[in-house]
Amino acid sequence: MDVRQFFFKNRSYTPLPLAFAIIFFADPSGSATIVGFLLVLVGEIIRLNGVHHAGGATRTRKVGAPALCTSGPFGYVRNPLYLGNIIIYAGVVLMAGGPFMWQLLGITVAFFFLQYGLIISLEEEILTGKFGDEYRLYLTTVPRFIPRTTSWSGHNKTSPLTWGKTFRTERRTFQVVAIFFLFIIAKATILR
């Protein structure tokens, strides 16, 4: 099996060791907790907007897309969901605090850039095969992670979800973030 395929199929589970370490060393305090919470909100807003515009084709076990999405955040950055995830996890690390906060932040960000780098290379290969020159133009015009200052006006072929469906699609992300919050709060209050 291609290692990229492994990371794609297991992308919801590969961060679990990091999650356990973040919770184990958690000791929230001070401004880092507030900054972390704000980062989690920013990351989730990016994800919500991305899921809304992608039309719900975001929680799949198979690499590919039914149509090329270039609207909303996809007009600024090719991988807004992955960018949102990195920001959320960075925020969780800062919220958790603890003696190894900065080391865990570096490890977390490095892990996600490695994992998503592998996944993105697989996705780009498959999407180039499926959408051809249209996708190649998108690749050369819209950056992977650092957003453009203006939205690219490509030929979007997806229809946004209703906001109700968007929130239902994001239910799992909300649950994971809530579980993090609960464990961090429990560690800070009950287990002290």
Task: Note the gap between the termini.
Answer: 44 Å
Biggest beta sheet attributes: none
C-alpha-based Rg, rounded? 17 Å
Give the total of beta strands. 0
CATH class, named Mainly Alpha
Q: Unreliable runs, pLDDT <50, ≥5 residues?
A: none
| Rounded mean pLDDT score | 90
Oligomeric state as shown: single chain
Overall spatial form: elongated
- Specify the structural class: mainly alpha
Tell me which CATH architecture applies here: Up-down Bundle
- Portion of residues in beta strands equals under 5%
Please estimate the helix content: 55-70%
- How many helical stretches? 8
The CATH topology annotation reads as Four Helix Bundle (Hemerythrin (Met), subunit A)
Instruction: Please provide the ordered H/E string of secondary-structure elements.
Output: HHHHHHHH
